[in-house]
Design goal:
It is a single chain. It contains eleven helices and eight strands. By secondary structure, it is of the alpha/beta class. It has an eight-stranded mixed beta sheet, with helices on both faces. α5 crosses α7. The longest helix is centred in the last third of the chain and has 18 residues, at about 320-340.
Length: about 350
């Protein structure tokens, strides 16, 4: 049964106060150093050019690069798509020399559904989580919009997850300790995957790590109406990305929550969630509302709203104090969720 199928229409809230929240001083300096071009909104008119620029500029390390001199074992896989869809590319990596099945971080990259790739995010994910926590990581090369529209990207991610769970033994991973994870667009896809896994009786992840996730296509919150130019991912860019993904479905009253998880009316039965977002982000209020929805449904969610942080702050300024604090909180949550006893396991 598709319990998530009856979305509630969104409506723009009246905006009486458009005062921008203050930026963290350290992050504000880092953002200013990027220059005005970094905050230029993405529009339908410039989308194709921005995609071309991103594809040229974004690092795309090879498997040899990712192996980092033998520290990691890396493999690239092509697995069958969902229901006869195109094959899906997965990039898997694990710390070299670790025996036994490892817990798995199933990672979905950011980029607004319109940019990014599975390879560029891996060096940081491997350095910050795979090594210290002894994790395997699988990063998904899902198709980008508008060349591929909903449901193609999320179904590609779903097909990859099912294949990984089915072949866990051969991959040396523990199918009972999978965490869905992603940032921005990838966070929204991870949330959608958690809903799909619940409703289709698919693999049962033990957690979902949602970092500034894109959850709501309606752009009707207070934080989405903050003045343009403050957050690098502003309302214009967000709307452009959602329209690229959804096409004629953009803003539809009956849009599926598998497209925009904020549309879900039933958030029960989901794995424990970690959500974080900046107080100066366009996406702030939809992330907070999603955590509240999980709580109302009786679920478990840990929410962090980082004061004075903008979208992607930890990428722009990874050494900033707030970025280090955010990494610590995410890592502690991952460690806890991966070391919990299985449900029903007896205590000492």
């Amino acid at each position: 049964m598709d319990r998530a199928r009856t979305p509630t229409p969104g409506s723009d809230v009246p905006i009486a106060d458009r005062t921008a929240p203050p930026l963290d001083p350290e992050l504000g300096l880092a953002l200013a150093a990027l220059g005005a071009a970094a905050r230029e909104p993405i529009t339908a008119d410039n989308l194709a050019e921005r995609q071309r620029l991103d594809a040229r500029a974004r690092p795309r390390p090879t498997a040899g690069d990712l192996a980092a001199g033998g520290r990691f074992e890396v493999r690239e896989l092509r697995v069958p798509g969902q229901s006869g869809g195109p094959d899906v590319t997965l990039v898997g990596a694990r710390p070299a020399g670790l025996a036994g099945p490892l817990p798995l971080l199933y990672y979905l990259h950011g980029g607004g559904m319109i940019m990014g790739n599975a390879w560029s995010v891996l060096p940081r994910v491997l350095r910050e989580w795979a090594l210290p926590l002894g994790l395997a990581v699988v990063s998904v090369e899902y198709p980008l919009a508008p060349q591929s529209r909903y449901p193609v990207p999320v179904e590609a991610c779903c097909a990859g997850l099912g294949w990984v769970a089915e072949h866990a033994d051969a991959l040396g991973v523990d199918a009972g300790r999978i965490v869905l994870a992603g940032k921005s667009a990838g966070g929204g896809l991870a949330a959608a995957l958690a809903l799909l896994a619940r409703d289709r009786g698919g693999p049962e992840p033990v957690g979902q790590l949602l970092l500034s996730p894109m959850l709501d296509d309606r752009d009707g919150t207070l934080s989405s109406h903050r003045p343009a130019g403050l957050d690098p991912w502003d309302r214009t860019s967000n709307s452009t990305a959602w329209q690229a993904l959804l096409g004629d479905l953009y803003g539809a009253v009956d849009l599926s929550p598998y497209a925009a998880p904020a549309r879900a009316t039933d958030l029960s039965g989901l794995p424990p969630a970690y959500l974080d977002v900046g107080s100066a982000e366009t996406l702030r209020d939809e992330v907070v509302a999603y955590a509240q929805g999980i709580w109302r449904a009786g679920g478990e969610a840990e929410l962090h709203v980082w004061p004075g942080a903008f979208h992607g702050f930890d990428t722009v300024a990874p050494r900033a104090a707030l970025s280090r604090e955010a990494l610590g909180a995410r890592t502690r949550w991952l460690r806890r969720v991966l070391t919990r006893p299985a449900p029903g396991a007896g205590g000492a």
